[in-house]
Amino acid sequence: MKKILLAFDGAHFAKGAFEFASRLNEIQPILLTGAFLPRVDLSASWSYSPGGGTAFIPTLEAYTAEQIAQNVKTFEQECIKRHIEYRVHKHPYDAAMYELKKETRFTDLLILDSGKFFEDISMELPNEYLRMAVHDAECPSLLIPEESAFPESIVLAYDGSENAAFAIKSFCYLFPEFSNKKTILVYATSKKKAAIPDLSSIEELVTRHFTDLTIHTLEATPAKYFDTWLTAVDAPLLVCGSFARSELSQLFKKSFVAGILNEHKIPVFTAHR
């Protein structure tokens, strides 16, 4: 049984993320913890010091207790109806992000709504809060659009980096129930006829966990063609490393976050050390 943490921002009920967790529970029972957070003040931002580490974001009491209580009630009713074992955690206004980060230390997986999670904090930086939450999580994260199909295919984004290999291994260990789905290991590069780094090693690993594996190299201009290539994949879930300084991550910083999450409406699994 997996312990899954599903974070709500107080004002929104993450319907797509909850539906995904519910489908996972149908395959194998889970413990679903709903973390209900107040709105945060992004203007204060996270404090990244030169020596590393972060400080929590001060919060704004913008959402009433009634709004949060209604979401908690909906969460409890849906869990009972779907036979999901659940817990409810409501965090204080002055330490919500700190508490969420701490909870991820004792969680197998964090699920977030990629479109609605604090979407109204900043019109200029609509994805910044989501990025920070994923960056500081001490467990793998799964970003779910409000409307997305449950995955029929798994796309493993590989660039030869430690982060990419770590994310792939983390996904394999967490989701053995997806082992029989069509799986594509994709290597994106701007170089012509480039060799896939450590091909035999990554192939040995992945073929132990997936029975229907294809290895594909995406050449030429990945930033231009990755989105197009992905549309041909049937109901994909994308697995990628998080915030690595690599060609693939640079592609994802621009077209991945805006295009994959917002345009393609597909789940994205990410993990980092």
Automatic annotation (TrEMBL):
Stated name of the protein: Universal stress protein family protein
